[in-house]
Amino acid sequence: MDKEFTYIGKRVPRVDSLSRVTGEAVFAADLKLPRMLVGKVKRSHVAHARIVRVDTSKAERLRGVKAVVTGRDTAGVKWGVFRYTQDMEFLPRDKVRYFGEEIAAVAAVDEDTALEALELIEVELEELPAVFTPLDAMASEGPWIHDEYPNNVNVHVEINVGDVEKGFEESYLVREDTFTAAEDDYFMGEPFAVVARFDDGGNLEMWTPNAGPHMKAKPLSNALRMPLNKVRVRKIAIGGAFGGRSEISPADYICALLARKSARPVKLIYTREENTVNVRMGHALITTIKTGVDREGRVLARDITCYMDGGAYSSTGPIATSVPFLCMEQAYRMENVRYNGYRIFTNKPVRGMIRMHGRSFACGVDLQLDRLGEELGIDPVTMRLRNARKAGETTPTGSVVSSCGLTECIEKAAEKIEWRKKYGNLPPWRGIGIGINSVQTGFPLGIRGGSQAFIKFNEDGGVTLNSGVVDNGQGNDQMLVQVVAEELGLPLEDVNLITADTELTANDPGSYSMVSTFAGGNAARLAAIDAREKLFRIAAEALEANPADLVLKDRKIFVAGSPDRFLPLTKVVRMGLIQGRPVSGEGHFAPKVDHRREWVSNPHGQLSEAFSFGATVAEVEVDPDTGQVRVLEVAAAQDCGFAINPMVVEGQFEGSVAMGGQGGMLTEYHFWDGGRCMNPTQLEYKVPLAADMPRIHPIIVESNDPGGPYGAKEAGMSIAMSAAQAYASAIADAIGVTITDFPMTPDKILEAIEKRRQEERK
Amino acid sequence: MDKEFTYIGKRVPRVDSLSRVTGEAVFAADLKLPRMLVGKVKRSHVAHARIVRVDTSKAERLRGVKAVVTGRDTAGVKWGVFRYTQDMEFLPRDKVRYFGEEIAAVAAVDEDTALEALELIEVELEELPAVFTPLDAMASEGPWIHDEYPNNVNVHVEINVGDVEKGFEESYLVREDTFTAAEDDYFMGEPFAVVARFDDGGNLEMWTPNAGPHMKAKPLSNALRMPLNKVRVRKIAIGGAFGGRSEISPADYICALLARKSARPVKLIYTREENTVNVRMGHALITTIKTGVDREGRVLARDITCYMDGGAYSSTGPIATSVPFLCMEQAYRMENVRYNGYRIFTNKPVRGMIRMHGRSFACGVDLQLDRLGEELGIDPVTMRLRNARKAGETTPTGSVVSSCGLTECIEKAAEKIEWRKKYGNLPPWRGIGIGINSVQTGFPLGIRGGSQAFIKFNEDGGVTLNSGVVDNGQGNDQMLVQVVAEELGLPLEDVNLITADTELTANDPGSYSMVSTFAGGNAARLAAIDAREKLFRIAAEALEANPADLVLKDRKIFVAGSPDRFLPLTKVVRMGLIQGRPVSGEGHFAPKVDHRREWVSNPHGQLSEAFSFGATVAEVEVDPDTGQVRVLEVAAAQDCGFAINPMVVEGQFEGSVAMGGQGGMLTEYHFWDGGRCMNPTQLEYKVPLAADMPRIHPIIVESNDPGGPYGAKEAGMSIAMSAAQAYASAIADAIGVTITDFPMTPDKILEAIEKRRQEERK
């Protein structure tokens, strides 16, 4: 690979940094439109009930109320990511299925009026028996949460590769453990907000934080019974997504409905409580893992059964049912493996995608491997090196791994924290642990047509890139600018962006499943190359040279090897304009994956074109009197293929340690009163702040994937997952007990220490 | 030509009609942005003066004033359409050159404060001798209005083809007349308004009625010393242009300057007075025409000298100096012709482009031909038929005429009004007259790169067209929609438009010089064809057919001749998405014209790829007691090549009769006190209303130009010009005297009748 890059691979500040730190960035909640109304949602105060009566007449008569909507105002369209999981009405007509579900909504001239109107809406509910855990839900005799799903089983994923029983028989050591975990959650910096307006032509325009506007526009057009052409979902500054903004939200629909009924723009801002309850969560899991290894610790067979608490609707959950397993099979080499994953409906908030899939799954796999190693006298790092995936291998479900720097990640992270020196030699209550994981760079589901980009040259030689890619905090805008600047030899400030607008930009799979750099970056690169070729054809004629001999650098087009034979880029652009040959370019890219209808319940084939790999090593100190964990140092190594902007990639690693390790394994969890979340706000739910964070060593490993732009693939999520695993592994090392319920909060740690002491006393 | 069109050539309502009649359309004056300020301009109250002192300190101290700007705040950049006509500072520093010129501007929290602030700006001017007519200006001994232009001569166009003197010698009859006319003007429905804002990245965003955003962005970026990439001029509803919005306006620049200085959005709305004085006008002309004809009335030689009042700056005027002549030489065949056109600076408002170039020029040519015919005993229609241009001929300055339906226009218009029956046989004070003219479809100057369009297919089979074309009232949006719908077999409502935005859309020459259908329509058509080819490649594989055998109609792709072998369009689009072959298209088109630097002062070569031709016949009745003219009937026939939407084309013809004939020849003119316009508002300046209009017979003649989209070329302007000529010709016929000063207002008509009576008495 040619490493002579000018902008790629460089640490340059992000194009959106200034607007974020100055507060100039406009989020949906900041948007002001003339005559705009305030929208508010009336929600269920029970977890499961039949809707008997919703009387909005008093609310409608309140002065300043411009529209009230209920299920009666809808076409009754059901939404689901897949055709066979369409089970959610955005405004249910017959039943509510979780505490906080939408029942009605109002649009009024101000917030006070809207809130007063909510109080005036009379809702009569006939409560139904509710279930709050997967096991209770499966055991329930009904009524089922959805009539179509007996025993509340939403999805059953079944994978069976090789001969698992024979593998166990041949194993030197077999161990089975069960791990549990609360929901993972995401506290976006920006609570959800949406603004909708209709123009006189009946066209809907919507601004909303989202991971993919095209993914929002389609279900909106279905639910509103409008042609897709008339639904425009637009880019706006976004304060985080983490998987929680991957799909349409009922609020998007409700806001549009209110705007249509009132014939005025409507803004709907979620409270922090709503943002927790009504913007998806990760799944709570119960995972039983049975692993057989040979004398050297190599995994011969693994059998996993996982029950996932899906909450009240399908959402993106059916995909999430296999993701933890797939991540595991990518990271760990094994020939015989069985997986039964069940996603179960409960009367709790809806669970879907999250940046950190399956805390109890991944942590369980790694903690169990630590225990197996312990019995064999093999340290955790060696256990992982012996089982780590290598490039060129095929996963059990059939994906060829094109590039893999996992071994290098493990070695570098371990070396950074001085693993060999420290492991087994730390003072009491100190521990060191490791976790490894692997993440897909784009899923086959939902990626329709990949990403397409257009470039046009402006008269002064600057360019505008048109791309569907969303930046929801990860730096995609910066990525696009660097790619285009690199290919066109332009300073970064000469690249303008138009992104993420269903009307203006072409299709893009959306910034989820870690695909934006791979698909969107490749599309932008190809568009730039296409435009460059047009430039070269024009310049070649004027320079009397072969287009193949030209190079573009520093806004000049040179004949290679002849520094005096050049034309300024601006001149070539103008020559093109005068000659009627405007310079523009088009590029599109779709990852090479298998598309199969049965993928959700039985994934097999090429799942993703590229896979990233991460290893995190953490050193912790536990206070045996308080159960508090102090994290001393973390080394986070990831094979991201190639770092287009190392500064941004390292920022991703750091954020991943915060979310996956510091928050995910130590402090972040919800507690419940039946179906009601009792800690929905930051007052009771502890998200780590900068001051809480340990010292982090981000380590970038570059395997240069053959398919990625400049070799790049996913960056960050492999760390979010392996950080949780490393924290868990280190705490177990520190206290000498393996806690099997996550996160590892002080009460559980104290309890574990006490239990160990009691056992030692025996 | 295949006449089997579905949408093209059909009378369908315009896409923008609803928003216009309901008032939903948002014009620049309607736009509201948070924290937006009101801008107002301090103007000169004298016609010519040195600026001695501008003291803004009191205005700046007024509460609510957020910015005050003068020439001191500018970079002193001079603007002109051509490099050698850069003579205008948007906020002059040293001199003012006409009554009403910009001196300073303020931005304040409301209009009252802004107006109060204007009063507080102290301006000290040292008055200079001023000149108000071209002849005075040329005779003046200085100081010249611009030091660089001695004797105030801005441009001298000199054309000399064939042997004019010999032509006169060989003529049977030679006649010389001098015609004069006041300025033509345009009363746009929407007075000019502009909104400008800067974002935190220093990017300028501007909404302003204009004929070509790319033509505004470039000079703005020069004057503001900003990269073009950071200047975005955006589409907004536009209430007419007529040539008056062809270039940057000082107000655009001033509004941006105020927004930059105040760091807040600024809106600047012109009063009706400002819209008259500061938004260009047509030129006032003094034209001497000498024509020699043979016994059959064929023109053997013509010599024209024209003095044009250019006002205080060059603006687009240098181009306008040759346009009346070029229109004439296109319409009338002649071998020997000489033209001397002088554009002279005066201390009056700036004159530029107008839909009706050279009232006294074109009307003079036709009135003189009527008189020559009278002496020869040949009626005006026959005189025109004998001299009318034919397809395949070359104009004196060297343009090949690719298509020409002029003879058919003359014949059809004459027949419609029963010319043969009526001419010479009308009752007293009734008259019938004819005018013919020809207009370019696109000028070589300013058309840089022609037009470029992009199309993308949305998931539901609808498309979005991205084109730089502006619709400023003539129906360009509708034209684009019909073209794309036709090529893609889509209902009109499935075509969305993104147009006229320097950031979003590619280069376009702008909707002036009558080029938008020819260039923009062709580009849109080519983009649609490009997208269709991609669709066909995808469909051909699935249908196992040859792409060349496919046809696209009614949202279905058929194998030609096999009505059962088809795929729904939406399905093919989705197949493309799934296969990673997104369907999009690109098209660009630049008219084939000669680009020569010396074009302005010496036009020669291919001026335009296509020319349109029009003939108007009018019948009038003059009240000899009041001088009032009642127009009984008008037949307006134009060869527009092909009418993409006959309803829209006919609307253009009707508007042209209103502007050129009814307003232009009867009621519209300005009167002056020195350099001050005394009738700048609709109270004193009579624009015809619907109730004033005669019965109009629009007649579409289709010559199917080989270069135009479906054969289309310019539509409307040939009528605006020939309507004035027809009205003048008919009045002369009615009163038996040829008035040589235009417009023909009642006072002039009464005076002419009186003069005739006196002569008859002699």
What does this protein structure show overall?
The structure is a homodimer of 762-residue chains. Chain A is of the alpha+beta class. The first copy, chain A, folds into three domains: 150 residues, Aldehyde oxidase/xanthine dehydrogenase, molybdopterin binding domain (Aldehyde Oxidoreductase, domain 4, 2-Layer Sandwich), CATH 3.30.365.10; 177 residues, Aldehyde Oxidoreductase, domain 3, CATH 3.90.1170.50; 326 residues, Aldehyde oxidase/xanthine dehydrogenase, molybdopterin binding domain (Aldehyde Oxidoreductase, domain 4, 2-Layer Sandwich). In chain A, 30% of the residues lie in helices and 25% in strands. In chain A, the strands form eight sheets. Chain A has a seven-stranded mixed sheet, sandwiched between helices. Chain A has a six-stranded mixed sheet with strand order 9-17-16-15-10-31, with helices on both faces. In chain A, a hairpin with a 2-residue loop joins strand 23 and strand 24.
